[in-house]
Hints:
By secondary structure, the protein is mainly α. It starts with a helix and ends with a helix. Helix content is 75%, strand content 0%.
Amino acid sequence: xxxxxxxxxxxxxxxxxxxxxxxxxxxxxxxxxxxxxxxxxxxxxxxxxxxxxxxxxxxxxxxxxxxxxxxxxxxxxxxxxxxxxxxxxxxxxxxxxxxxxxxxxxxxxxxxxxxxxxxxxxxxxxxxxxxxxxxxxxxxxxxxxxxxxxxxxxxxxxxxxxxxxxxxxxxxxxxxxxxxxxxxxxxxxxxxxxxxxxxxxxxxxxxxxxxxxxxxxxxxxxxxxxxxxxxxxxxxxxxxxxxxxxxxxxxxxxxxxxxxxxxxxxxxxxxxxxxxxxxxxxxxxxxxxxxxxxxxxxxxxxxxxxxxxxxxxxxxxxxxxxxxxxxxxxxxxxxxxxxxxxxxxxxxxxxxxxxxxxxxxxxxxxxxxxxxxxxxxxxxxxxxxxxxxxxxxxxxxxxxxxxxxxxxxxxxxxxxxxxxxxxxxxxxxxxxxxxxxxxxxxxxxxxxxxxxxxxxxxxxxxxxxxxxxxxxxxxxxxxxxxxxxxxxxxxxxxxxxxxxxxx
Length: 503
């Protein structure tokens, strides 16, 4: 009954939103969506630029044993390889350490970021996180020339700054996102990450070959500067909650607050209930599996294209960005579809989330298995890996917004916990790959990595289907809300008993 009343209330205000949206200024929640989209765009530009730049920074990266098994004879000629004389003589293990260092810092601020955003608001926390990473990115060339330990330290600190972004934004959507816009707003916001990856890879490749300051250093100067400029606009245009926004229309504010159940009161975080919740564990496993595939493509695909398929750096950057472009389109489209089928009652929230998550992890698993047998056919290999990551965008309307369904008050903390676990692939993945392929860059070794990724996708999909729920859980409600629900339940029971006596 409670869920039905919530759905009817949300549908009523969904209709009201359509009525007033056409005659008012741009909606404040859409401004937040756009600015957070650009924030994640910058975040992933800052995170991913090193994956491409590293190819130009090192001397013949991982090339000593590129054709150890002679699996692709002549590939270097047909692919038009450019051998760049980089500045640094770093082996595969050193490169894996550098690429994974970001995530050692990133994992530290996930839970604190979400918790702080729920208590003090997310505007300054989100903005400061990206500003910190932007400034440190400007110092990356200096750190690289000082030595591997300095570069690793800078990347760890960048991760510390950027670690607050996702949980902070989820906490803000807990206050800003109406029930039937959760999939669309949260997914569009985070899809800036995919556009950032699409943008950073080819542009980094171009800057490495034609940029200023010696080529590869310009990659870090350009994207660091962009992040600082974005921060200024974020401060001017974004506010923590609808109640604090000075320019929001009264109609939009009422619509948002009524849809989410009124202005939320701060209540203590139920840590024990959170960490023992099966629903949270279901999200966590799906999050881990998804990020293993995502981070694998982000940090390892450029190496695969360079060392196994032998593309030059410009081709490498362009092809590495293709999977993220497909994922961008997929997740924006599917988030709109998910909200439509929920608002029109074609599927319940929990069925919708499970369906989207299953499609977003089973399809990539199958394509990843097929990629293991693509051999030297570069076109087929790139197509399979592109579609694999692209279809994972379906999961953004599954596990990725389920935190807002089961505990909107604590969405930031929940995402902090699940993303903390989901960050582990960021440094474990490159390390595993380094162990598998160091001085042995062969299809056989890469195939092991692809099979492992597929297995994790399937496990994540299965556990989410078993454990996920679609309604707000009892421990996530305020005591007043729980008492009100209990009172309503007693009243209904009393009326039923009276009716049975009369009969």
